[in-house]
Each structure stands twice: as C-alpha cells, then as structure tokens.
Design a protein that fits this description.
InterPro entries: Tautomerase/MIF_sf (IPR014347)
Radius of gyration: 16 Å
CATH class: Alpha Beta
CATH topology: Macrophage Migration Inhibitory Factor
CATH superfamily: Macrophage Migration Inhibitory Factor
Organism: Shinella oryzae
Number of strands: 8
Structural class: alpha/beta
Shape: elongated
Number of domains: 1
Largest sheet: 4 strands, mixed
Keywords: Plasmid
Strand content: 25-35%
Number of helices: 4
Strand order of the largest sheet: 2-1-5-6
Protein name: 4-oxalocrotonate tautomerase family protein
C-alpha cells in the first residue's frame, strides 16, 4: 500500500506540525485514493527554512514555507481524476498547516508497477493474485 514521504520547512514561531502532517496525509490518501490506512506508511521530515532554496533565495528570507510530498502507489489502482484531486488537496492542506507556502512546493504521485512494488516482502501483484486466485 502507499508509502508517503514528506519534507517541509518548519514554520517559524509555530509548533512543529509533524504529527498533523502525517495524520492529514494518511486521511487524504484514504479519502481520495481509497488506500487502507492500516498499511499506509508516512515518513515526515522537517528542514530548516534557511536550508531550503528556491530560485536562489532561501524561503526563510521570503518568509514562506515550502514542502515536497510524494506517494508511491500501485499503477492502475487509481483514476487520473483521483491522483489529480490528491495533488490539489495535499497542496492546499500543507499550505494550511505550514503556509503561506512558496508556489514551488511539490506533490508527486509515483504509480509503480505491481511487480516492482510491495511491502512485507511480497509484491502488490502477488498479493492481488493470492487474494483473487
């Protein structure tokens, strides 16, 4: 099931939203991509605003937050409209949690071949075959 990685700049003068980000990503992934939260893993890492550079300027100097979020899912398990909605919602919710964010904040969906992706030592296609075989 999904592996989500999020990297974001810590908001200045605010509490660190790490757990809120993880919860939001799991919730939005279940709601929009229909993925089981019981096997959704989320890795959330913060970065110092001085260490995140966009177009040659640090986002700290711009007084903006930024982030990069990616999810790996099995290809052909979601429609284009679902992945498009997921990208939009993640952007909007990250903006609400750490914003205002720089427009150069990124959301990526990796739709991976089911023979090249899995968890617990089993590929997604093998899991599907065992379930439907």
């Amino acid at each position: 099931m999904p592996m989500i990685k999020a990297r974001y700049t810590k908001p200045r003068d605010k509490r660190d939203p790490k757990h809120d980000i993880a919860a939001m990503l799991s919730r939005v992934t279940a709601e929009i991509l229909h993925k089981d939260p019981a096997v959704t893993a989320v890795l959330v890492e913060s970065a110092e605003p001085d260490d995140w550079i966009v177009a040659g300027s640090g986002v700290a100097d711009l007084k903006l937050g930024t982030f990069y979020v990616e999810v790996s899912i099995t290809e052909h398990t979601n429609l284009k409209d679902e992945t498009t909605a997921w990208v939009r919602r993640v952007y909007d919710e990250m903006n609400a949690l750490i914003g205002p964010v720089h427009e150069a904040s990124y959301v990526l969906v990796h739709a991976v071949d089911g023979d090249a992706y899995g968890y617990g030592g089993l590929t997604q296609n093998l899991r599907w075959a065992r379930k439907h075989g």
